[in-house]
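Lab meeting prep.
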Amino acid sequence: MIDPKLYTTVVHAGTHPDPATGAVMTPIYQSSTFAQEAPGQHKGWDYSRGTNPSRDALEAALAALEGAQYGIAFSSGLAAEHAIVQNLEAGDHVLVCNDVYGGSGRLFRTLMGKFGIEFEFINMGDLDLVKERVKDNTRMLWIESPTNPTMQILDIAALSEIAHKAGAVSVVDNTFATPLFQRPLELGADIVVHSTTKYIGGHSDLIGGAVMLNDEAWQEKIRYVQFAAGAVSGPIECFLLHRSIKSLAVRMARHAENAQAVAEYLAGHEKVTATYFPGLPDHPQHELAQRQMQGFSGIVSCDIDGDLQAATRFTQNLNIFTLAESLGGVESLINHPEQMTHASVPEALRRELGIGESLLRLSVGIESADDLIADLEQALAHI
């Protein structure tokens, strides 16, 4: 259940009437540069790669949303992740949950790994294994919960404690849960990262990322990368994202309600062999999810009874669900991870995780739950 206070937070965070005009909404400051009264003397903004009033307002909203001191906006979720790991050094060791978003794994393996940083992908559901794999040079634990796409729930508090005992930081990708359903900083995490393209944006019309945290030293390091590398959000994207935050609470309540209904329907269907949703009582980490989360969000994964041909036929016969990458928009989407979002994951790891030709990931939108279930019903009849 969403904390009622957050309904107020999302509407007002980072928003103040414009002092020049009285505009209720923060204007779009579509300017790359700002006039200076004298060399080095300005009104707080000099060049929009560094700071921009539209981005300042968004970052204040992002911080309030996650209950953090600092919010830092980026041009994409992967740009936000890159800014974090770019602060590591050659020889550092990072433990990564093995069921991590495919783009994150690709970033770690193919880009950052060649600079001498060791990324080790392990099952973080096994806390004893995590403790065993921590090394003297372990600097970071990279946690994603719920995981993408198999919807595992990882114990953020316990993993953060392991990180801290090792002198490492814990980073949590909170994209699936959003700050309304999960509060990693309150559970002991050091850094929270989001693809704001997803639920926070919520309308499939922008690309963005965010980092939220309380640690001043890490904030300075990440913000320096934001400025020096330049992967910043433009003023229009900042405006759109700030606008979207205002409806986040009402949207997430509906996403979660619909996903629960869809998951329960799929779990009882004879042509569905497995359903992965933390709100189902038979989910392996259901109890942990109840302790750690305030709601189960809107992503449901399932295995259908069939092969790639059957999965393809099913997706092609849907009318309301759209076959597309991404998630978290108001419209319902369906994705085939093996062929789409997780195609870059090494095949052996995909098999280990159960990301096969029959696995589908549903991003359940805010339409009528009855209509969504009817759409799934008629499409399942084709396999």
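Slide two material, second protein:
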Amino acid sequence: MKKSSAAISIIIGVIVAAALSFAISADIALFAGFIVAIALLIYSDRRSVKLEGIIFIRRTQKGRSFIDRVAVRHRGFWRKMSYVGIALGIVFMVLGSLLLISQAYAVLSGAEGGVKLLLPGPVSTPVNAPGVFVVPWWIWVIGIAFVIIPHEFMHGIMCRIDKVRIKSVGWLLLIVIPGAFVEPDEKQLAKTKRATKLRVYAAGSFANMIVAAIVLLVAFAAIFAMSASSVIMPSGVAFTPIKDGSAYNASLSGSIIAINDISIRTHAQLSSELSKYNPGDAISVSTAETYYVSGFFPQGVINRDNVTAKTVVLGSGENGKAFLGVGVLGESVELNMSLQAYAIISVLLFWIFLFSFGIGLVNLLPIKPLDGGLIFEELVSGSRHKKVIVRTVSVFMLLVLIFNIIGPLFLTG
């Protein structure tokens, strides 16, 4: 009876909270629903979930046999791939460290720079702020899934090809930040040869880089396929008016699609058509409303249902030629598909790439206990001062990383 009353109270509370959230904002309501779903997941599996410090952890034996099968069937392939992973891991460790230090210098100089945390939030579009990128929670969940699953799966495979036992697999939760893990037998791993340790440590970020590369290929293939099939086609020139120029004075905006009824689809066509006129000539410029979509695909999307034609008197440029006074942003496109579908595909591919590459790169920094720190420890294991070297480099790089995150809050305008 008490359990039923508690369940009813929870359901009523969720309904009331959802109603209040929708009254404030749909984004807040959806984010609240995301948090409630996580809470219900933990509650429903509470007997198997353990609280270790401030982290909820759920361990299980499920999934180990699948990892074993994949590792055993293709052991030769994975072993060859592991050496590629080690080499790339070391290269990206060095490049990532240099990039982080150069970004810290940029921040010290007052320039835009730094590293940003990627956090979920009650927003419909990504919010860029110093030290943090707040992205819609659903993008964040998908992005994290594409990071965690290949990352941990590859760790497990590299353990098993050298017969390192996997104690458990599972998921964890820090507040609303989910994670997953493959837990190897640390004592057994510590006794293995250096090559085994390096392939295990490098495996996760190597998987993330593979995902990032695949996303890039998919994005370019999608752009090519959509262009070839006329799903997208150049249909105008997106621009920004130069202050006090002809376009600015005529209040032009959007994308130029025609001059004196001559169709303009590309930047080259715009330049060619303007070259026919002289300073002081009055021309009719047709512009279309333009939506801007972030991601891998072209940004300007033309809305031909909202076209405006205005008379513009051309000014004179520095070379004495006719000057419209626009800064070209790029060629806009016309869609033969849903704008919403186009935007979702573009944004998702972009953020999956950013999550995979960015988190994979940070994980390779020589900061113990990150995988990069463990790789670095193995690389200097022959030194008598191994512990001092690893501790010094880890602390230094950690401070540089923290400065990159919080420095812009104080040093950039």
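Talking points for slide two:
The first strand starts at residue 49 and ends at 52.
Residues 48 and 107 are 45 Å apart (CA to CA).
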